[in-house]
Amino acid sequence: MPATAPITQDLLTIPRKAAPEGPLNLIGLPRAELRAALLAIGTPEAQATMRTAQLWQWIYGKGARSFDEMTNLAKDYRRRLAENFTLDRPELVTRQVSADGTRKYLLRVAGGGEIETVYIPEEDRGTLCISSQIGCTLTCSFCHTGTQRLVRNLTAAEITGQILLARDDLGDWGRTPVEKRLVSNIVLMGMGEPLYNTDNVRDAMRIAMDGEGLALSRRRITLSTSGVVPEIERAGSEIGCLLAISLHATTDEIRDRLVPINRKWKIAELLDACRRWPRLSNAERITFEYVMLRDVNDSDADARRLVKLIAGIPAKINLIPFNPWPGAPYERSTPERIEAFARIVNRAGYASPVRTPRGEDIMAACGQLKSASERTRRTRQPA
Ligand code: SAH
Ligand code: SF4
């Protein structure tokens, strides 16, 4: 391959499961693959289904971090499991806790790449914002993650592992009923474009939704995409969670600049894909995310165009005040402008919550995620 080959092409074709160096990690394996792994170490066929269920319960129901804890399995069998498999989470590099209770985890994954996971406690829920890739190959001009150069897809183990690690850290295992859990909701709004990694995201979210696993209702999981139109349909049929669309502009001209994937799939195509989203109803509305950028996309005319564009789609509009990062080429819209914009959207009958930036003091807000090592490297580069 020539040295100048685009890095993104190369990295997006890495195998779906990272090259298994050393023992296989059981986390993130679909049930059938877990069963096959148990058979491969000599588990008798007649016991395999029961053993799979037991392991599943230990790993995802109780949060077991070692095979030793699995006391309803014979000692010899536990040893065999430990010799062949791991239950590794991503490695915790740093954990920062914001004045508002938001926690940001910097995690290291195989190969040395780093990702971030953010926990946001609110009165009625606790939301875990997880990453689907290291960095992101898309280069939305207002997003800090998009400026990170090192990119690869995360494995299902690494995606699921973020949930397990956060629950470990929060002491969130064994809380019943589900409503008492600290991690009650998941949003795929961390680093990366989930629909450039649909298979692994699907496997991980199926585990998150599995009634005998993490047991989160599918309506507590939201996948946010910048608009990978051909994958939206597959996400609807194979994952079945809620959908959020990073719309951010009301004309193709502006969206081409803000969300460059728009040059491939235009606003009209994106909205057609939304109209085909299964189970679309008032109970399962699509969220349209709209970052408020001063004098770029925040006029009254934009607000009016926005409601026209999405007419007929059961939707809510999430207005996100731009979260600045060092060197960002945009400013946040003024509170008055955001309010005026929200009023027009509300009058058209759409809920339009303004997303309060959380964890700003630890750079944990939307679109600010970028690994610490990358930041350090860049600041060391000559101007
Ligand atoms: N790649 C996916 C999911 C991750 S980004 C996507 O783009 O949808 C999660 C949300 O944060 C997206 O709506 C994204 O556009 C928004 N975002 C990115 N940078 C931001 C910033 N600096 N301020 C506010 N929101 C931002
Ligand atoms: Fe990637 Fe989403 Fe950031 Fe765009 S907004 S660069 S798609 S993470």
Widest beta sheet: strand line-up: 3-4-5-6-9-10-11-12-13
Give the overall shape, derived from the CA principal axes: elongated
Instruction: Note the beta-strand portion.
Output: 15-25%
CATH topology of the largest domain: TIM Barrel
Number of helices: 12
Cα distance spanning the termini: 30 Å
Which hetero compounds are present in the coordinates? S-adenosyl-L-homocysteine, iron/sulfur cluster
Describe the protein.
- The structure is a single chain.
- The protein is of the alpha/beta class and 383 residues long.
- The chain folds into two domains: 24-86, DNA polymerase, domain 1; 91-380, TIM Barrel, CATH 3.20.20.
- The chain contains twelve helices and 13 strands.
- The strands form three sheets. Strands 3-4-5-6-9-10-11-12-13 form a nine-stranded mixed sheet, with helices on one face. Strands 1-2 form a two-stranded parallel ribbon. The chain has a two-stranded antiparallel sheet with strand order 7-8.
- β12 (286-292), α10 and β13 form a beta-alpha-beta unit.
- α2 packs across α3, α5 (156-170) packs parallel to α6 (198-209) and α7 (229-238) runs parallel beside α9.
- The protein is elongated.
- The two termini are 30 Å apart.
- The model is unreliable at 1-20 and 379-383 (pLDDT under 50).
- Iron/sulfur cluster is lined by residues 136, 138-140, 143, 145-146, 192-193, 226, 246, 367.
